[in-house]
C-alpha cells in the first residue's frame, strides 16, 4: 500500500530540523527508522503533510558510558544495541528485550529514539526506561531540556514532546553494585507485540534485601504502567519466593489491558503477574541474590 | 509536491531517478528500475519477501522510502549471481530444495547471504533467528536451514 502524499525533508543538522518542524507545526512528523511510522502511513492510519527525516543528522548514533550514565543517541538502531558489548554485559534488561523486538530486518532500521518516542503502549522499550529511571533529552526551538521517563508518557500516542521537539538522547543511570535487571515478554510469534511483558530493575543491599526496585509493564494500559506500589513493597525485604509472589500480584493489579486477539483482560493480567515474577527472579539472581 | 532527484547504486551500477516522496523503495526497484526479483508479499511489514540489502544490512524495502535510500548501495536478488555463477546461497537453495512456490525465496536469499557475510559458521539456531523476519508458507523452513548450511560450507 502507498501512503498519502507528503513532502520529504532531510535536514543536515538538528537546528535545521527543529526549524522545519516549527514552521510546519503539527502537519510535520519526525521520521527516524520508519518502522512504526511508515506502516501507519501505508495503512493510512495517519497522514502528515511533511516528514522530517533525522536519519542523516550526524552525532545521534552512539552508545557510551559517561559521567555515571549510559548515553544512547536517539538514532541508534536496535541492531546496534543488540551487538553492543556494553549492553550485553552491563544492561541485561536491554539485552533481554532487544532480540524480542520485531524481527532482525526491522531491527536493522528501527531506532531506540523511535521506540520510546512513538507513544504506543505496545512498544517494549518505554517500560524498560521507566524501570531504569531513564531521562529523555530533547532539542527544541528554545534549546535542550530533559524529561524523566516517568513524566514522558501522557496517553495513547501522546508524549511530553512538542511537535517541534526532537528526542536526541536517552540517558540511563549506571546501576550501582549489586544491581540486576530483566525483561520478560510473552508474544505469540516473532514480530508480535507483547501479550504482556514486565521490566524490572533492582539493587540489593549488603545483606541481600532489596534496597531499591522499579517495575514497569508493557501493553498494560494506554501508556506504559509503572507499578510503584509493588516496587515499594519489595524495599527492605529479602526477595524470597513469597515476597516476589506478592509483589507480582500487586504489579498485575496495576495493569489495565484491553481484550483483543492476544487474549482476554483476565488472561493478560494473569500473564502480567507471571512475567513480573519471572523478571523479578532473574533480576534478583543477576544482582547476586538467590 | 516536489519530486526528489536521487542516485543509488543497484547491484554495482549507478542509477538515478526522480521520485515522489512517498514512493517506496520496493516500488522504485520493481516499477522504476524494472527489476522484479524483489517481491511484495504483504502490506504490513511482516513477510520479508521484499528484503534487499541496503548499505550492508538486509531490510524490508516496502518499509523504506526511495528517498531515504538516496546515496545508498542496494543489492537485490538479481545482484547475487556473479559472472554467470550462482551465489552459494542460490546453489544451496537449489541443491537442498529450499523452496517450493518460490515467493519468499528472493527475500530469504538476501537475508541469508547477509548472514553469511557476518557469520561464516552460523548454528541452526542462528540461521533460524536470522530468517525470523522472512515468512515461508511452503517449506516449513527445514530445507531452508539446510540450504544455508550448504552455502556456509561452500563459502568457508
Ligand atoms: C513487523 C514489526 C514488528 C514490530 N514489533 C515490535 C515489537 O515487538 N516491539 C516494539 O517495541 N516495537 C515493535 N515494532 C515497532 C518498531 O520496530 C519500533 O518501535 C522501532 O524501534 C521504532 O523506531 P523507528 O526509528 O523505526 O521509529 P519511526 O517509525 O521512525 O518513528 C516512530 C514515532 O516516533 C517519532 N520519533 C522517532 N524518532 C524521534 C525522535 N528522535 N524525536 C522525536 N520523535 C521521534 C516519530 O515521529 C513517530 O511518531 C515492530 C514493527 C514492525 C514493522
Ligand atoms: S512486502 Fe511483506 S514485509 Fe515487505
Ligand atoms: S517457498 Fe513458497 S513461500 Fe516460501
Describe the structure concisely.
Chain A is α+β, with helices and mostly antiparallel strands and 290 residues long. Chain A has helices spanning 14-24, 37-42, 78-83, 85-90, 92-97, 104-107, 112-117, 125-132, 228-234, 241-253, 265-286; strands at residues 7-9, 28-31, 50-53, 63-66, 69-73, 135-140, 143-148, 153-155, 158-159, 166-173, 179-186, 196-204, 210-218, 225-226. Chain A folds into 3 domains: 7-51, Uridine Diphospho-n-acetylenolpyruvylglucosamine Reductase, domain 2 (2-Layer Sandwich), CATH 3.30.43.10; 63-173, Uridine Diphospho-n-acetylenolpyruvylglucosamine Reductase, domain 3, CATH 3.30.465.10; 179-284, CO dehydrogenase flavoprotein, C-terminal domain (Enolase-like, domain 1, 2-Layer Sandwich).
Could you please describe the fold and organization of this structure?
The complex is a heterodimer of chains A (290) and B (156). By secondary structure, chain A is an alpha+beta fold. Chain A is built from eleven helices and 14 strands. In chain A, strands 4-5-10-6-7 form a five-stranded antiparallel beta sheet. Chain B is built from five helices and five strands. In chain B, strands 2-1-5-3-4 form a five-stranded mixed beta sheet, sandwiched between helices. In chain B, strand 3 (51-54) and strand 4 (57-60) form a beta hairpin. The mean pLDDT of chain B is 97. Chain A binds chain B through residues 1-8, 10, 31, 34-35, 38-39, 41-43, 51, 53, 55, 79, 99, 102-106, 108-109, 190-191, and chain B through 1-2, 4, 20-22, 24, 27, 43-46, 48, 51, 57-60, 62-65, 67-68, 70, 111, 129-130, 132-134.
Keywords:
heterodimer, A: 290 residues, Uridine Diphospho-n-acetylenolpyruvylglucosamine Reductase, domain 2, Enolase-like, domain 1, four-stranded antiparallel β-sheet, B: 156 residues, alpha+beta, Ubiquitin-like (UB roll), DNA polymerase, domain 1, 2 domains, 5 helices, 16% strand, binds flavin-adenine dinucleotide, binds FE2/S2 (inorganic) cluster
